[in-house]
Structures are given as structure tokens and as C-alpha cells.
Amino acid sequence: MNSSAQIVIEKKDTYRIIFNDPFMEPVIVEDEDRFKKLISDLKAAGKNQLARDLTEKWVNIHKDAFKINFKGKFLNLGHRTAVMGILNLTPDSFSDGGLYYRNIDKAVERAEQMLEEGADIIDVGGESTRPGAKPVSVEEEKERVLPVIRALRKELGDNFFISIDTYKSEVAKAAVGEGADIVNDISGMSFDKNMAKTVASLDCPIVVSHTGGRPENMQKDVYYDDVVAEIINFLESQIKKGISEGIRKDRFIVDPGIGFGKYVEHNIEIIKRMSQLKVLGLPVLIGISKKIFH
């Protein structure tokens, strides 16, 4: 979904509004009164849809608090940054070398340590999505993650969030059935056509991420005209798709996908312009550990 306009945050309280219409010049807005005047002018010119689009984005930019909830658990965001601890259950993890692969006791011990260190969410993954990684089957992925999720709930209780890092709807459904709370899909629901319907039926939060291709080839021939604008357009489109399948708007979390189909210069550009993701009006997840920035 291409927006009819973009709101770019130039600096604090200064916004550049760029229209997709080539006959409309960009506008600088420095306060709410100037924005209201712009909206009034657009309506007077018969551009009601554009006025609505911009108003929604303006409201989104000024949101400063969000809440993630599932099964009676709440995570309040806005006044502090929540922390996600990563628990890789793969034999080829680039961060831990497969330390927790098929070792439930060590996995639980590591999760407990991360919670003690301040983690709010434990992200459990059974398939490596590093550049060049090969996919694994649904059954193999479930064999890796389900016993650990089950053990985490049995040993550590239910007062923390577990996310399942998967792009497969069958794995997501099974993981939530065992105690996971959030689906973390690196493909933004684009790899599995059933993911949106599955999440809607589970009514759980979902992280919609941007990736420039599948892990096995996503770092080849990477090109963007404007990486941040293209990420926002993709995320908007997938959120719209998810809502059409029955996912509630307040279930979405967005992730620009640093390192997923991006070169160093793209990753740096995303970091510099992170505030522009605010136009989506949703919590933002960002994963920068073990990424290359030089």
C-alpha cells in the first residue's frame, strides 16, 4: 500500500510532508495549528482521503504509550524500553554456536538468567535466519522449540512473555498452544499464506518484520531507492492484509529488520531515521545484536 503522503520528522517539532502527487510541493509543518490549516486546505480542495491519511499519521507520530497483552499478562511500553532475550535452539546459531540445541536444561537455565538480568520477553527460535541459512522442516522446528517452551512454562511460570521466532503458521500455532504469547515472523507474514489467519484465530500479538528476501539469498543484489520509505510501505501493506484477515490493530508490533536483506549503509540509515516508523502508530522492535555496522 503506497501512502498518499509521507511525514518525515526533520527534528523535534518540525515535520516535512512529502506528497506522492508530483504536482504537490513538500510542506514544512512546525506546529499543530499549521498542520490543522494544511488539513483544512486539503479538504477545501476536495482531497478528503489525503486529509484523513495525513491526520492518522499525525496522530500516530504523537503516540507515546503502548500496551502488549495476552492471557492476562501486560507489558506497558513508551516510558521505558522493554528487553527481549534471545534463546536460539539451532545447531548453527551464529551467537552461541548451538549451545542450547536439544539441551532443555541449559535452555531453561539461560532463560532464567536472562529474566534475572531484566528481560521482559524470551524469544525462542528453532530455525536459523542468518544470511545464507537453509530452511528446516515444520516437524524439525517443532521438535526443537515445543519441548523448551513447555519446560519454560513448567519451570519458570507464566509471569513473563515468550515469543516464537518463526515464519511457519503451523509452528506458530503449536508454540502458542504450549505457552508462547507472541509470534515473531521475520517475513512479516509474507512467507506463509496462512500466517495471518492463524494469528487472527489465536488473537495473539505478532511482530511484523521486513526482510529483503529469504535467508538463503537475502544478502544478494540488495538495492533500495529509499530503504526506510520502502520498509514503511511494506509494513503498512502487511498490517492492512493482517487486519483484513481478522487480526486486531492493537496486536501488531513492527520491526524494520536490520540485517535482513540490508547492507551496512541500509542498517545505519534505518538507525538514523528510526523515528519515522512512528507514523505506523505501533510498538517498534529492533534487533541490532551481532549485526555488522562497519
Keywords:
8 helices, 2 domains, single chain, three-stranded antiparallel sheet, 35% helix, 294 residues
Q: End-to-end span in angstroms?
A: 33 Å
What is the SS-derived class? Answer: alpha/beta
Helix fraction bin:
25-40%
Described by its quaternary structure, the protein is single chain
Order of helices and strands: EEEHHEEEHEHEHEHEHEH
Can you offer a commentary on this structure?
With 294 residues, this protein is of the alpha/beta class. It is built from eight helices and eleven strands. A six-stranded parallel β-sheet has the order 6-7-8-9-10-11. Strands 1-2-3 form a three-stranded antiparallel β-sheet, with helices on one face. The model has no long low-confidence stretch (mean pLDDT 92).
Topology:
Elements: E1 5-11, E2 14-19, E3 27-29, H1 32-44, H2 48-61, E4 66-70, E5 73-77, E6 84-88, H3 104-116, E7 121-125, H4 138-156, E8 161-165, H5 169-178, E9 182-185, H6 195-202, E10 206-209, H7 227-244, E11 252-255, H8 264-272
In short:
Helices cover 35% and strands 18% of the residues.
